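Researcher: I need the complex structure. Ligand is glycinamide ribonucleotide. Inputs:
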Amino acid sequence: MSDDKIKIAVFVSGGGTNLQALIDKQKSGVITSGKISLVISNNPEAYALERAKKAGIKYAVVPRKECATQQEFEDKLNELLTENNIELIVLAGFMCILSESFTSKYPKRIINIHPSLIPSFCGKGYYGLNVHKAALSYGVKITGATVHYVNEIPDGGEIIMQKAVAVEDGDTPEVLQKRVMVNAEWIILPQAVEKVCKLLLMCN
Ligand code: GAR
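Model: Output:
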């Protein structure tokens, strides 16, 4: 029998604080149209896996390094997604590039959280702390986070949600990163997931 919620896979690589925000917001009722069914990490050491385990969510590791080619890596991801009937992929701090052959299989079914206001500080090479270093060295006074659909252009898909955050005097990349996470990422990612799941349910 088909479930009345969109089955979500969350792709992670590291600490997984955005995954935690999704888990918490699913519990508190912000996310009601979707269900986190699977967590996939390319990194066996990712603390995000502990978070999945503690929350009782099924998880899998697909180490990119152990795959001879991008194709092999993506074949393994596809297999897991199909096996688990996944309908929406959320990239939450996933630090691997996905090829066009992968992204084109899931049009408007992959979303990503990026720690800046796109189109600033995004694209190739802009990930994690690098984004905040670039924002500080440019001297912007406002930064933030963006949730967008994923297509073949890195950070180039349609924007779903954005939230601005002030840069303060004396900010280090780490301090700014934390402020952007707390005041933007952990808020808009769950909201965007709910919004997209609602849309997908209407199309089902
Ligand atoms: C987050 O700041 C996320 O926006 C960023 O990596 C961090 C992961 O933290 N993602 C990117 O830079 C993708 N381009 P988390 O593992 O604690 O969620």
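Model: Summary of the prediction. Strands lie at 6-12, 34-41, 59-61, 88-91, 110-114, 142-149, 159-166.
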